[in-house]
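Notebook, p. 212. Picked up where the previous page left off. The plan for this session was modest: take the two constructs that came back from the sequencing core last week, fold each one, and keep the raw output in the notebook itself so nobody has to go hunting through shared drives later. Recording the first one now, exactly as returned: residue sequence, then the structure token string.
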Amino acid sequence: MPDLEFEDRYGHLGPVVGVDEAGRGPLAGPVAVGAVILPEGFSHPLINDSKKLSEKRREALYDELCESEEIRWTVSLVEAAEVDEVNVLQATYLGMARSVQSLGVEPGMCLIDGLRVPNFPYPHEGIVKGDSKSLSIATASIFAKVTRDRLMREAAIRYPGYGFEKHKGYGTKAHLEALRALGPCPLHRRSFQPIAQFGS
């Protein structure tokens, strides 16, 4: 389970921010990036990498964490059009920087799930599989994932027929069949295959 080892290691530098994203792989919808500062000594028996939690457990944790006045957090969205403009990797980097900035504090260190980020405007360390090692990254992963999932469920109402409430924009068989029948909607990433083949 994730703990505060990395947070404690860098705590003397100032606020330590955990950063994680959700939604790099889907064919539709935004990339969501969570940034979290946990209070010193924070612990929670159930927080883990969001991918290892059931949707019901993630949703319950999100609601519980939102009620805590001690946790500082934000989620930034990079919409599909911007993903198409700069590519999904650069979009993720942009979302990470925006998310940290919108916390409104100068971080002593950012803990980022994955590799180091080129030209990142804040001091940071990339931690591979960080969402299963760092409690603040794991918490950020929950905020990002649940925020994005809820947006995609709302999108399913605006754009019926695609099944966004089920697959959240990932390229499932049902999603691909809906794309063939309906063509892409404004939430689809036009630079991604197989959507690019539909033209503009």
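Okay, moving on. Second construct, recorded in the same format:
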Amino acid sequence: MVEAVQDAGVVVTGAGGGIGAALARRFAAEGARVVVNDLDAAKAKAVAEEIGAIAVPGDASAIVAEARDALGGTIDVYCANAGLPSGGSESADEKVWALAWDVNVMAHVRAAQELLPAWLERGSGRFVSTVSAAGLLTMIGAAPYSVTKHGAYAFAEWLSLTYRHRGVKVHAICPQGVRTDMLDATGSAGDLVLQPTAIEPEAVADALFAGIEEDRFLILPHPEVAGYYQVRAAEPDRWLTNMNHIQQKWEATR
């Protein structure tokens, strides 16, 4: 059992399935008191009933106050997991870009605005951001997703560097392919890039809990992402050339 989360009040957004459900199950198994959030009320209720948690369905941007009340007045851990897998290029409709920005970045900002006053006053709190490796690297065929996941990573990084000395712990989870409905929605690009090394959602939860025990900011359920990230930083042209080769291979199969 991880002592840091025992009896903690935990909120997991987007927890009706996939990574969010796996996180909610793991927190409950570790002795936390869990709020399960999802836009789909039936899915949120099903997961909550399965693990003895509380369902608070609705828009992840607007449920912090209700979730806090459901947990008796205190949120100790907030998992900003809800995300939108928007595909397309720079030519995607502006409504697609705006929705991706709202769900993948601004929902995290709004949650932090609600959570930080209490966390800073008491000197503790934990913010978990499900980012994706696309936030460290990028993803072919998915400009809105890649760009906004970079934003989600940047915000998590900013939270950590700004408030870690005041007791706020931040974790950014950056998996590649995970066997969820979101992976299925990536189509042929996901089949090429993500499916070959895809992992189960439970492996993401395992990686997070290892990171909590080791007090690590960056959580990489696919360890090889660290190597890709190093090449990207040290040799950006080499990295971009390699990614462009993958882009060309994808285009040839469409």
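Notes on construct two before I forget. The chain has one domain: 3-253.
Flagging for discussion at group meeting.
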